[in-house]
Design the sequence.
C-alpha cells in the first residue's frame, strides 16, 4: 500500500525530533531511511506503526487516515534490531503468533495457520529451523524468523529498524540479498531504517537521507551517491574532504589544486566549499606539485595519505594499494586534479585550512 506522510512533526520536551517531514512511498516500493543516530528514523517508523503519535501532520496509507487508527487496527509488520522472539516458543509458533492473536473474525483456522507457517518456512528458506527454540539459532537465523513473524499477517506495510545491525559483515551481506529476493517476491511496501550507506544503496529502490529531523534528500541510490544535494548529505556519504575554494564563472579556484576537470557550477561567484571523497583526490607524483605527502600509511587495500599544500591546506587522501607497487612515500610532491566532487556556496568547516 502507498504511504503518504505530510508535514509531520514530533517533539520530546525541547527536542524537535521530526521537523516537518514529507515523504511518499509507492505501493510495493522498498525505501531506505538513511541517517546518523538521533536523526529521527525510529521515531518515524514508530509513528507509522502506531507505537507513537506525531504532534502534527498526516499519515495516509492507501488513502486511509492511519492516525485515526490504533496500532492493532493497522496491518504493519515490524522487525527491530533486537527483536526478542518468544524464547519459550519454537520457530513455527513464533511465526504463527501474529495470526493466533488476530480478532476471532479475522483469525484463520488452526489448519490454515499451519499451512501458512509451512509456506513461510519454505519461502524464507528456513524449514530446517521450524522446531528449534530461539536460543538454538544464530543471530542471522533469528532475524529471518523475525521477518517470518512480521510477514505472517500479510502486512500492508513492513517496517524494518536496523534489522541486521547486530550481525557481522558477511551475514549482513547474505541477509541483504535474501531480503531483496523476499521483497521482490512479496511486493510488500517496505521502509528499512539503517545508518549504513552500503546497506541502503544495495537494498533500496529509493534512499531517503535524514539529518536532524528533516529529510535532506530523496532519490535513487546512484543519484544520491553521485549528486549529494546538501553539505550534510555530502559529508554523510563520505565526501569528507572539504576544501575552501573561490568560484569564478562557475569554476572552483584554489591554490595548488587544478579543478579544471570538475563540471562547471551554476552558482554565484564568491567563497564556496568543494567536497571530495578521499578516494577521488587522486594525487599524482610531480616534482612541480604544490602539495607534499607528509604521512603515508598502508592499511591492507589502501594507502592513506596526508597531504599539505598552500595556505596550510591539509587533505586526507586514499589510494588503492596494489601488491608490489610502491605507494606515494612521505616527502613526495604531488599535484591534485580531482575529477568528481560537489561544490556548495559558503565557507568550509572541517578539513581544509587553506588561507
Ligand atoms: N520517548 C522519547 N523521549 C525523549 N526523547 C526521545 C524519545 N524517543 C526518541 N527521543 C529522542 O529523539 C531523537 C531521535 O531519536 P530516533 O530514535 O528517532 O533516532 P534514530 O535516527 O532512529 O537514531 P538511532 O539510529 O540511534 O536509532 C533522539 O535525540 C532521541 O534521544
Sequence:
Amino acid at each position: 500500500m502507498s504511504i503518504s506522510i505530510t508535514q509531520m512533526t514530533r517533539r520530546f520536551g525541547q527536542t524537535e525530533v521530526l521537523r516537518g517531514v514529507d515523504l511518499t512511498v509507492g505501493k510495493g516500493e522498498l525505501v531506505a531511511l538513511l541517517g546518523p543516530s538521533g536523526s529521527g528514523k525510529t521515531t518515524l517508523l514508530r509513528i507509522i506503526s502506531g507505537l507513537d503519535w506525531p504532534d502534527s501532520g498526516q499519515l495516509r496509507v492507501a488513502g486511509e487516515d492511519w492516525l485515526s487508527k490504533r496500532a492493532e487496527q493497522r496491518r504493519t509488520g515490524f522487525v527491530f534490531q533486537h527483536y526478542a522472539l518468544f524464547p519459550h516458543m519454537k520457530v513455527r509458533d513464533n511465526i504463527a503468533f501474529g495470526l493466533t492473536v488476530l480478532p476471532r473474525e479475522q483469525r484463520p483456522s488452526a489448519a490454515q495457520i499451519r499451512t501458512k507457517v509451512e509456506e513461510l518456512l519454505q519461502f524464507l528458506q528456513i524449514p530446517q529451523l521450524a522446531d528449534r527454540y530461539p536460543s538454538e539459532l544464530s543471530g542471522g537465523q533469528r532475524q529471518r524468523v523475525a521477518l517470518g513473524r512480521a510477514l505472517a499477517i500479510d502486512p500492508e506495510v513492513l517496517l524494518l529498524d536496523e534489522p541486521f545491525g547486530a550481525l557481522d559483515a558477511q551475514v549482513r551481506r547474505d541477509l541483504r540479498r535474501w531480503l531483496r529476493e523476499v521483497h521482490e517476491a512479496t511486493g510488500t511496501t517496505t521502509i528499512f531504517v539503517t545508518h549504513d550507506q552500503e546497506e541502503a544503496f544495495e537494498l533500496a529502490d529509493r534512499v531517503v537521507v535524514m539529518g536532524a529531523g528533516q529529510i535532506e534528500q530523496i532519490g535513487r541510490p546512484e543519484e544520491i551517491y553521485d549528486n549529494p544535494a546538501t553539505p550534510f548529505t555530502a559529508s554523510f556519504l563520505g565526501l569528507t574532504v572539504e576544501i575552501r575554494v573561490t568560484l569564478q564563472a562557475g569554476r572552483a579556484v584554489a591554490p595548488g589544486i587544478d579543478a579544471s576537470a570538475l563540471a562547471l557550477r551554476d552558482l554565484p561567484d564568491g567563497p564556496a566549499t568543494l567536497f571530495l571523497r578521499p578516494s577521488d583526490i587522486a594525487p599524482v607524483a610531480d616534482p612541480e606539485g604544490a602539495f607534499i605527502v607528509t604521512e603515508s600509511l598502508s592499511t591492507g587495500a589502501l594507502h592513506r595519505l596526508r597531504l599539505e599544500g598552500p595556505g596550510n591546506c591539509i587533505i586526507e587522501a586514499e589510494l588503492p594499494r596494489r601488491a608490489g607497487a610502491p605507494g606515494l612515500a612521505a616527502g613526495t610532491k604531488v599535484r591534485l586534479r580531482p575529477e568528481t566532487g560537489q561544490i556548495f556556496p559558503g565557507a568550509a568547516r572541517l578539513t581544509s585550512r587553506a588561507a
About this structure: Residues 12, 15, 17, 35, 37-43, 195 surround adenosine-5'-triphosphate (CB under 6 Å). The helical segments are 41-49, 91-100, 110-123, 139-152, 169-186, 197-203, 221-226, 231-236. DSSP finds eight helices and 19 strands in the chain. The chain has two domains: 3-231, 238-345.
